[in-house]
Design a protein that fits this description.
Length: about 450
Amino acid sequence: GGGSVMTVKSSLLLACRILFPKSAKRSAARQSLSGSLLCIGISLVPLIVVLAVSNGMIQGMTERIIGLSSSHIEAVLEKGIPAVSDAASLEDFASRLKTVEGVTNAYPEAGSAALAASSSFRIGVQVRAVLPEIFTENKSFASFFRVTDGDIGNFKRGTKAAVIGEETARRLGLHSGDTFRLISASVNERGTVLPKAALLSVAAIVSSGYRELDAAWLFVPIDTGFDIIRSGTGEYSVLVETENAFSPELVRIQNSLRDEFPFDADFYRWDELNLDKYENFASTKVMLVFIMLLIVLVASVNISSSLVMLVAEKRREIAVIKSLGGSAHGIALTFLAAGTAAGFGGVLIGLPIGLACAVNVNRIIGFLEKGVNAAAEFLYIIKGYDIHSFAHIALLDPEYYLPEIPVVIPFRDTAVIVISTVLLALAASVIPAWKAGHEKPLETLRKV
C-alpha cells in the first residue's frame, strides 16, 4: 500500500540506519557486509598495480623499440640503387627525405648480420652503421642509451671504433679499449660467399635498459660500416622521425614519402614493423586485467549473500515499515543503496592503497626480492649447499623486462574500474533488494 509515504530520501536514511545503527547490538549480517567491503578493497589493489605496471612496461618497451629500432617511419632502400653505393650517397638521400613536410629528422643506416669474436667467445650480432652524432642528436638515443663504460666521444667517423650493448659486452668479456674481430660475409664475382674480418676497438658500452635490444646490436661509424659491409650484402635504410609517433598524421607523412620517392625505397610505419610485438603486449595486458577483474567480481558477489543475511535479520523491521505504508520500491531501494554503499566503501579503501602500491612498485619488488633471496640463502645453508654457488633470484628477469618499471598511472582505466566496481556491487544487490521489497508483512508479523 501507500507508496507515496516512502520517498528516496527516507529510503536512503533507512539504509544509513541499517548500516550504522545507534544500538551497538552485534549483527552477523553487518559483519559479513563489512567483510565484503574489505574483500572488494583488497581485490582492487592488485588490479590497479597490474594496470600501472603493464602500462608502464608496455610504454617503456614500445618507446625503446620505436626510438632505437624502427624509428617512427623506416625507409628501406632497394639494394642496387646509386643511393646505397657509399656513405655520402646514403647521407644525401637521408637529407632529401628531410624536405618532406612533417619529417623532423632522418638518420641513414646500413646493417648486416655478422659474427663478433673475442678471445673467449663468439656471438652473432646485428651490425648497425650509423652517424656518430646520432647518440647525441637523436632524442631517443640520447635519453635511452646509458654509457656504462668508455666514452661515446671516441665513436668517430674514420675510426674502427664500435659501440656495443652491455649484454653483448658481457658475453664477449669486453671492456672499453679492448679489441675484437667482426666477421661478415662478402660475395665475389662468381657468387661465392667469403668471410671478411675486421679488427675493431670498443669505444663505449651502452645499455638501453631492455636486454633484448642490448644483446642484438653493435654500432659502427657509417663510413666504417660501408667498408665492413660489402655492397649487395647489407640492408640500407633511413630512420625517419616526426613530431609524434602516435599521431594520426603519421599515415599522411608515410603517404607523402611514398609519393615523393616511389622508386627508391619502401616506407613502413613503426606499428607495421612491430605489429606482432605490440599485439603480444596488448593481449598479455588484457589477460592480466581479465583475471584481476574476476577476483573483483567474486568479491562483489559476496555483497549479495551479505544482503540476503541482512534482509533475513531485518524482516521484522521491514514488516513494520510496510504495515505503516512503506512501499516495495522504497524498501528495495534501501537495500540497493546499502549494497552499493558497500561497493563504494571497497573502492575508497582499495583505490588509495592500490595507487600507493603502484607508485612504489619498484621499491616493493626490491623489498620482496631481498626477502625471497634471504629465505633461499637460508635454505641453502640449512641443506648444507655451497653458498658461493647460490645464484641471485630476480623476480622480474631483466632478460624479458626492463630493470626499472616505468610507472604509468592509467587514469582513464582506473576510472572505468571504479565505476565498474560500484556497478557490480549494485548488480549484486538487485535480487536481495527485490526480495526485501516483496516481503509479506502479515506473514512475518504472524510468526513473531
